[in-house]
Amino acid sequence: MSLDAVLAFCALCLLLEVTPGPNTFLVLRHSLHGARTGVVTALGSALGALVWAGAVAVGLAALLERSAQAYQAVKVAGGLYLVFLGVRTFWAHRRRGGGSAPGAAAAAASLRGAFGAGLVSCVLNPKVGLFFLAVVPQFVPAGSGVGATLLLGAVEAGVALVYLSVLSQVGARAVDWIRRPRVTRALDRVSAAVLTAFGVGTVVSAR
């Protein structure tokens, strides 16, 4: 695999990442509670990309391409998970009484929860699987084994981790302004609504 091919693949991975989606929004949301939480979310998303690479390498992800039912099932599951995250965010806001910014970061999301949200959101996003199915084979040299696919999966995961980590730093930099009580209350409501809208839209489009 030539260096030019790897660089071209990196460019395509970056294009995939900069396209707004659930993972981008999740990283930004968790970054409100600190850059570290955002980076952990990004790490979970990057691991999710590796899971998809492994699925493609062993042929499991091809089921999405051949079976509309399988694609819809994954899409619905992903949509329902986003709805769950949105509802959970809403109830967390209600439990705080809509008050000031969460003084304890764990009140909004623990590091484990942030990692899990990034991982599950990516694993239940069939568009990531289709990206690997459609794009990766074009960069895998003829006769290469599973290792080449996993290597490209690692490249995609690395690009995702770097981009989303930078995004989390940007989000965390805005904390001083965001943590104003009025702004925090508004963002809690908006984040709950957006996550739910992502989920409902995904479920509806699957039909």
UniProtKB/TrEMBL annotation:
Q: Which PANTHER family match?
A: ARGININE EXPORTER PROTEIN ARGO, ARGININE EXPORTER PROTEIN ARGO-RELATED
Among the GO molecular function terms of this UniProt record, one is: amino acid transmembrane transporter activity
For this record, the Gene Ontology CC terms, alphabetical, are: plasma membrane
Q: Which organism is it from?
A: Kineococcus aurantiacus
Q: Which Pfam families match?
A: LysE (PF01810)
InterPro entries, per this entry?
A: LeuE-type
- Official protein name in the record: Threonine/homoserine/homoserine lactone efflux protein
Give the membrane topology, semicolon-separated if more than one: Multi-pass membrane protein
Q: Per the UniProt record, which residue ranges are transmembrane?
A: 44-64, 76-93, 113-136, 148-166, 186-206
Annotated compartments = Cell membrane
Q: Which residues form a coiled coil?
A: none
Origin: domain of life: Bacteria
Sorted keywords for this record are: Cell membrane, Membrane, Transmembrane, Transmembrane helix
